[in-house]
Amino acid sequence: MSIGPTGGSPNASGMAPSSTEDSTAGWESWHRLHPLSPVVQAGRRLVPLAVVLAVPFLSRGSSGKYQSLVDSALVGLAVVIGAAEWLVTRWRVQAGVLRLETGLLRRRTTQLPLSRVQSIDLVRPGTARVLGLAEVRVRSGGSREGDVRLAYLAAERAEHLRDGLLALVRGHRPTLAGAENQLARVSTGRLLASTPLRGVILWPTLAAVAFFVWGRHLSLGAGSVAVATTMVLAVGTGVARILSSQYGFEVAHTRDGLLIRGGAVGTFTETLALHRVQALRVVEPLLWRPFGWAKLVADVAGGQRRGDEDRAASGRIRTLVPVAPRADVLRVAESIVGPAARAVGTSPPSRARLKAPISYPLLRAELLDDYAVSAVGRFRRLTTIVPLSKVQSVRWVQGPVQRRLDVATVHLDAAGGRGTGAALRDRSTDEAQELLRRLPGLCAAARRSVPVGPAPVP
After folding, report:
1. Where is 314: in which H helix or E strand?
2. Neighbour tally for 28: CB within 10 Å
3. So what's the pLDDT on residue 1?
4. Distance (Å, rounded) from C-alpha 365 to C-alpha 373?
5. What stretch of H or E contains 224?
6. How confident is the model over 78-121, as pLDDT tens digits?
7. Do residues 309 and 425 both lie within one domain?
8. Residue 339: inside a domain
9. pLDDT top residue among 38 and 292
10. What's the pLDDT tens digit per position in 418-438?
11. Where on the phi/psi map is residue 59: left (φ > 0), alpha (ψ -120 to 50), or beta?
């Protein structure tokens, strides 16, 4: 089965066809990427190349004409390589399989069955937005080598292709796409106010100021100024990255899962199927709590960074709500895990206060029929919700201090990377042993109750 518009297949220029009716032959033939794709690709290569060549060029001044010719040849070579890659790259959708062929010297063919697709994202870097282009990223659940990246197509055509692929994945025609129901949106004012209060921004800034003042006091001269300036530039880069990636951030639910979009210079549109969520984390930093702000992070099975994607792009799919009122964050969490998002939990026995005097007031844990909920943290409150159907292993841990206090911790490990899962901390030994006895059966029952394939958002 394949999809596409009637009235002729899309042309090689990457422009969308005039008709939007369903067809069974629109994408079956081979298609190329947009002719301007090499411009965007070459731009990504030329920026680091220009940085490398800038220092020797400035040091040579007006001399070194031969070397300047060599530098120009390197730049031209980067452009030629981009054009050659465009010529040898083609793609099509046929019989429920997305196929991509590329490679100039080393030919590579990737075939991704749509039944194995985990998400289909639409990404528009700054240069691509200026040229009216977009990238379609089709991710599978396995190795990153099995993913397909169509960079780049005309923006309208990329959206049409994304909607069509999603329709094939869920087994419906593209004309039946469901409406969006917005759950949360990051306001610009709250984003600007919360950014300086993030630990990754606040503490380096304070350190830079302290180093500058300390250096001036001890008359360290230009050295302290240089170090402080470097730290400030690093903080500025971090602030720019946060504002650029989280500007206009919004999350809505559709029939395909959670729809996440945002971005300032470069924009992105991602779909997160609910069955990929291994755990949810509600994070409430200390400096956000007086304002009632929180953020929601999802642990997703499989690595998210693919190829040459930047760290900001690789992390967006994990962050469902960067900063919002706690009520909005819980509403988004509730759309994924139901009432478990508002579970309060119970405290460990009072003797556990001797082991964790600072974090004890916020230690909570609760075991529901389908979810386990744990809360920890005094300065940074962290609430973790794990579906029992995603639990891979159960561990019972009791350190020497815990043995003296007759308490233990039960860990529920899920897929998705190191540290994914929940920890029911410092429960009484009897309670921990009972949890260890019950959890395998509950997890097995939860897995049996999960329907095969992606479940629609309620």
Report:
1. helix 311-316
2. 16
3. 35
4. 6
5. helix 222-246
6. 677 778 888 889 999 988 889 999 887 788 898 888 888 878 88
7. yes
8. yes
9. 292
10. 567 889 999 999 999 999 999
11. alpha
Angle (nearest 5°) at CA 154 between 153 and 158: 65
Please indicate, yes or no, whether residues 317 and 233 belong to a single structural domain of this protein: no
CB burial readout 79-94, b (16+ within 10 A) else e: beebeebbeebbbbbe
State yes or no: pLDDT of 4 exceeds 90: no
How are the residues of the chain apportioned to helix, strand and coil, as percentages rounded to the nearest 5?
A: 45, 30, 30
Q: In terms of domains, do 370 and 242 share one? A: no
pLDDT digits (tens, 9 = 90+) for 250-268: 999 887 788 899 998 888 8
Please report the pLDDT score of residue 168 as a whole number: 83
- The answer for 323, left when phi > 0, alpha when psi is -120 to 50, beta otherwise, is beta
Contact 260, 270 (CB under 8 A): yes
251 assigned to some structural domain? no
Domain containing 206 equals 188-246
pLDDT of residue 434: 94
Residues 229, 323 within the same domain:
no
28-37 residue pLDDT tens: 889 999 988 8
Per DSSP, 453 falls in state: S
Same-domain check for residues 328 and 441: yes
Nearest-CA neighbor of 413 among 400, 396, 399?
396
Closest by alpha carbon to 407, among 348, 357, 345?
Answer: 348
Question: What is Dmax (Cα atoms) for the chain?
Answer: 81
First vs last Cα of the chain: how many Å apart? Answer: 28
271 is a domain residue: no
Q: 110 pairs with which residues across the strands?
A: 100
CA distance 438 to 443: 9
Q: Count H helices, E strands: the chain?
A: 11, 19
Q: How many residues does the chain have?
A: 458
CA distance 314 to 303: 9
Q: What is the DSSP letter of 8?
A: S
How many whole angstroms separate alpha carbon 297 and alpha carbon 315?
10
Mean pLDDT of the chain: 79
DSSP state of 46: H
- 195 and 85, same structural domain? no
